[in-house]
Amino acid sequence: MNFEEKTIKRQEIFKGHIFTVAVDDVELPNGLGQAKRELIFHKGAVCILAITPEEKIILVKQYRKAIERLSIEIPAGKLEVGEAGSEEEAALRELEEETGYTSSKLTLLHDFYSAIGFCNERLRLYLADKLVKVENPRPKDEDEVIQLLEVSLEEAVSLIESGDICDAKTIMAIQYLQIIRK
C-alpha cells in the first residue's frame, strides 16, 4: 500500500527565527482525494541528561509561555545557525550556558522527533555523566531566566508523578535512567 502524501502546493504563513509555519495542499495516497496539512518546520534541538559526580540529575526550572506555567526540564536548546551536523558541540554549548558544566564525553541516547503530526523538530538526547564545573562558563541567553535544580532519580520520578515535570523530553530522559539503573 502507498502511504506517501504528495505536496501539490505549499503556502508559507510565517517565517521566524526558530521555525516556519506552512500550509500544504496534499494529494492523498491511493486516490483518496486531497487534504490540507498545517506544518511547522524547525531547525532542530539538543537536550542533555546531565548527571553530577554525586549522581544527581541537573534540571532547569523556567517559565514556558506556550503552556503559561513553570516547567522543570533537562537542559536543552535549539540549534543555532550553522550548527546542523554539529549537534554534540551544540549540546556542550547548551550544557555550559544553562548549567555551568561541561563534559569530556557525551553519549547519544536517542534521536527523535517531538511532535510528528505537525512538526519536524528533531531532537538529539545526550547523556553527560562526566561533568566538570566550568570556571568561567558562557553566559546564558539574554532572555533566559532559569533556576538550576539537582535532584536524585527518585526525586525526579516524584516530580513526574506530581506533574511538575510535564515535558516529554525530560520524562523520556528520566525513564531512560530508570531503565539503565535497574
Automatic annotation (TrEMBL):
Q: List each copy of the Nudix hydrolase domain by range.
A: 40-173
Transcription regulation as UniProt keyword: no
Q: Which GO terms describe its molecular function?
A: hydrolase activity
In Pfam terms, one family for this protein is: NUDIX
List the GO cellular component terms.
Answer: cytosol
Superkingdom of the organism of origin: Bacteria
Keywords from the named record: Hydrolase
Q: Which cofactors, by name? A: Mg(2+)
Instruction: Name the chain's protein.
Output: NUDIX hydrolase
